[in-house]
Amino acid sequence: MATKKAKKKPAKKVAAPKSKSGATGLKYVGAKPHQITPFLMFNANPEEAARFYAKIFKNSKILSANPMQADFVLNGQRFFSYNGGDHPNFKFNWGVSFMISVETQKEVDYYWNALTADGGEESMCGWVKDKFGLSWQVTPNILLKLISHKDKAIADRAQQAMLKMRKIDIAALKAAVNLTPQPPLRRRRPETGHLKERGSASARG
């Protein structure tokens, strides 16, 4: 005789603990499901770092910040940071960096100067470290197009030019691959002096 399977009872939902005022004990502005959020562990006050970055990048917003943690958005990218104290394992290095894509030399100069201010560090090929030790790449889009060009000769010349630069110089990069626009050739007018002389001689004859 067949036996009936016992129905599983649904798991009970455990509510977060609430204070007398009705608020939960921990307040955190959560990210959307499946969203990748960089988590930065600073050796000091993350609030100071968040405010430093928010002044540099447009369309930025600090969601919450204090000496222990900061939750902020830079140009639409979410970041969360924490104060890890002076621990040797929480040191930034060149192995992880954030790339800033730009179009013009004016934008390159702006981000380069802003991120190296107050003790930042310049490096090669468009890389910098800010005063908190976080690495950035200030990268004009033309650079990525040229070093991945289907013409290997152009890609090689672009890469060799990049390897000699600290801050990327767009004009110098274009010149290295012969993309600098040349002035149009002026058409020379035909010389008519000998025709005038010939006509004068005929008139005298």
What does this structure look like?
It comes from Turneriella parva (strain ATCC BAA-1111 / DSM 21527 / NCTC 11395 / H). Pfam families: 3-dmu-9_3-mt. This is 3-demethylubiquinone-9 3-methyltransferase. Residues 35-139 form the PhnB-like domain. By secondary structure, this protein is α/β, with parallel strands linked by helices. Among the domains are: 36-84, 2,3-Dihydroxybiphenyl 1,2-Dioxygenase, domain 1, CATH 3.10.180; 93-181, 2,3-Dihydroxybiphenyl 1,2-Dioxygenase, domain 1 (Roll), CATH 3.10.180.10. It is 29% helix and 19% strand. It has 6 helices and 8 strands. Helix 4 (152-163) crosses helix 5 (170-176). The model is unreliable at 13-27 (pLDDT under 50).
Beta-strand segment tally? 8
Radius of gyration: 31 Å
* Major β-sheet profile: 4 strands, mixed
Q: Can you tell me the CATH class of the domain at 93-181?
A: Alpha Beta
Biased composition (Basic and acidic residues): 190-199
Biased composition (Basic residues): 1-12
InterPro entries: Glyas_Bleomycin-R_OHBP_Dase, PhnB-like
Organism: Turneriella parva (strain ATCC BAA-1111 / DSM 21527 / NCTC 11395 / H) (Leptospira parva)
